[in-house]
Amino acid sequence: MKHSQTETTPTSHFAPAERASDRQVAEMGGRVLVDRVLGALIEALPDYILVLNRERQVVAANQRLLEAFGLTDMGAIMGKRPGEAFGCTFASDGPGGCGTDHHCSVCGAVRSILECQENNAPSRHECRITLNRSGGLSLDLEVLSNPAQVDGIPVTVCIIRDISDRKRRTILERVFFHDVINTVGGLHGIAALLAEGKGISPEKEAEYKEWMVHLSNRLIDEINHHRKLLAAEKGEFRPDLGMVDVQQLAREVQALYVNHDIAQGRRLVLGPLAELTIVSDLQILRRILGNLVKNALEATPEGGTVTIAARQEGDGVSFTVHNPGLIPPEVQLQIFQRSFSTKEGTGRGIGTYSVRLFGERYLKGTITFTSTEREGTTFTASFPRQIS
């Protein structure tokens, strides 16, 4: 499934499309098998190992890799390229398979392999990959490509380490503490004013207490959402289904963010809203739409306008969030990947990923976007009338 559409593409070079014949691949694989040193090495290492020919096709792999990706034997991946062997969702999109699609131009694995081959030196890059099986499972991999020779013929030995757990833990902790500390900070500030009690009128005191209740509810909501996110990644989340009024939801999200700090100097308006109710998870829908609105406001220059709209699509609904900005092409290619962020160190890197995770896997919708210089950026979140 495609999640992005764009009129521009990155300037990065694609990998060559040419492949060796099946006979050449089998012959090279046989040479690796009889090379006792290389064979013993790839089985001894604790990581996943691929041995590639000059055309980036698999000629050997260790048993650990086969088991990790549910592969029965080497025959299942012999002659394939790494993305094709793993089941990357974009592996078959390019004219020459893995490495030749525009998404591949920002792939860390492709960069690592090409740099190793071009410079005849080790090259290490991180790679984010979404699999077209296992419900769209996302992996973070560290790929170290090393030049080697078998009977004088150059090969590339890729040492692949799954760093998904480390990345996920780091990002979730960063996001959790970022969100919670912000809310707790506001709560503490109001509590301190009430504790001091000097010069506070009864009206102001009542207002502060109301804000404390509001912030306390927000804190509980943040904690519960991160708990749901953890469950969603494990495949254990269950939507809390109920009737959702589309117009009311859009108005709630606008009211939530229209006076938010990130909306300062920007307009957040409502476009046409379909009169429709659907059966879905209200809290998750509110979070999805809120994430899209926050991202749009952050991408909008002062004086710009973000528009929330909703139209009926068949029996279902499509929410749209539009802003006048253009997402850079290299960002468009990675925007739904879990650990990708344009704002390093600020608690981001999971917003759009969680939008797709909840919206597609659990609410059975589709999340897409368009971004052009002329039309700006529009995210569309489409959901069925009722989850089957």
Describe the protein's architecture and organization.
With 388 residues, the protein is of the alpha+beta class. It has three domains: 4-162, Beta-Lactamase; 166-233; 242-383, Histidine kinase-like ATPase, C-terminal domain (Heat Shock Protein 90, 2-Layer Sandwich). It is built from eleven helices and 13 strands. It has helices spanning 22-34, 36-44, 63-68, 82-86, 108-119, 164-196, 202-233, 246-257, 282-299, 329-332, 351-362; strands at 4-6, 48-52, 58-61, 123-130, 138-150, 153-162, 242-245, 267-273, 277-280, 305-313, 316-323, 366-372, 376-383. The strands form three sheets. The protein has a six-stranded mixed beta sheet with strand order 1-12-13-11-10-8. A five-stranded antiparallel beta sheet has the order 3-2-6-5-4. Helix 6 (164-196) packs antiparallel against helix 7 (202-233) and helix 9 (282-299) packs antiparallel against helix 11 (351-362). The radius of gyration is 25 Å and the shape is elongated.
